[in-house]
Amino acid sequence: MEKKMISWKLWQALNHPPRHHPLFQYTLTHAKKEDPKVAPGFFMWIFMCSTMTLIWTLIFDLLPYIFMTAIILLNTVYALRWTLRISGTIVAEKEMQRYDLLAALPIGMLGTSWAISTGCLHRRSSFRWLPYLMLMLAITTPITMIIMGLLTSFILTTDLNAEAILANVDLLEIAILIIPFMFAFYFDHLYSILTATLIGMVATVDVKDSTDARLRAAISFVTLQLVVYALLLTVLVLGLPQLFALLGLSGVLMLIIESIIGLVLFIAIREWLVRRMWRFLMTSFSAEENEVELVLQPSSV
Question: pTM above 0.85?
Answer without folding.
Answer: no
